[in-house]
Amino acid sequence: MNREAQAPAQDAREAGDDRDARDEAPQYVLPLVVRIERAAPPERTDALETAARAVLLMLTHDRATGDGDWAPALRAWQDGRIRKVVRRARGAEWRKAGELPGLTVAGDGAEVRVFPPVPLDGWPKELAKLQVSGTELADPAAPSEPGPGRALLWLSPELEMSAGKEMAQVGHGAQLLWYALPERRREEWRRAGFPLAVRTSSRERWARLTDGGLPVVRDAGFTEIAAGSRTVAAEPPADGFDPVAGFDPVAG
Questions:
Q1: Cα angle 246-248-252, degrees, rounded to a multiple of 5
Q2: What DSSP character marks residue 131?
Q3: Alpha carbon distance 175, 139 (integer Å)
Q4: Domains in the chain: how many in total?
Q5: Has this prediction a pTM greater than 0.85?
Q6: CATH number at residue 212
Q7: Buried-state track 111-133, b at ≥16 Cβ within 10 A, e below 16
Q8: Could you state, in chain order, the average pLDDT of each consecutive group of 10 residues for the chain (252 residues)?
Q9: Any domain includes 222
C-alpha cells in the first residue's frame, strides 16, 4: 500500500497568523460530518477521537496518495492552509452524506465521515446545507486516564470551544503529529490502527507541553477564538503503539 503522505511546507498551526506563499495557493477545506441523532448523540470524547482518526485515515488512504483519484485534492489542500470544517447530520441527511465519496470511521459509539478536500467555495450541495455552528456534545462522566501505547492529543485548558471546533482542532493535532513522526513510527502507528486519546490538559501540564518542542496547533481565528490561540498539543507515546482492538474504518 502506498503511504507517501509527506509533510507539506506547513508549520504547527491550523492556518497561521501571518500570510505566506500558502495563502496565494487555491484554498481547499477538508470536510468532516459527525452523525448526531437526537435520541442517541455520541459522547464528546469519543466523537473527538473518532474525528482525529478520520483525518489520519484520509491522509493515508490509497485513494489519497500516489496516483489515487483523491490525491490531487489532498496535495492541493496541503499546499495551502490545512483547514477543516465539521458539520453535523442525522437521519436522511446522514444517509445522503454517506453516498458521497469518502470514509466513514466508527468509534465506540460515534460515527464520523471524512471527505476528500473541496475548494473553499465549492462544497457539494449535500454537505453545504448541513449545520456547522453550535455542535455541542457532552461526556456522561470525566474520561479516564489514557492508557499507554497511544498518541495523546491535549486540548488547551484555557479555551472554550464547541465540540465541532474541538473536533477540527484535534484533527489538526493528529495531522501535525503524523508529519512530525519519522517514517518507521508512522508506519507503526498506521498498522496499529492509529491509537490515540483526546484529553483536556491541566494548566501545569499545558505549560510543559507547549514549551517542549511538540507539534502545537495555533488557530487562524476564523471562528470562536482569537487568531494565534494554541489549541492542541500532540504527544507521541514514549514506547510503541498498542493496536486498537476492533478498529474498523469503513470505506464508502
A1: 165
A2: B
A3: 24
A4: 1
A5: yes
A6: 3.40.1490.10
A7: bbbbbbbbeeeebeebbeebebe
A8: 42 46 78 96 97 97 96 92 94 97 96 97 94 86 92 97 95 97 95 96 95 92 89 92 70 53
A9: yes
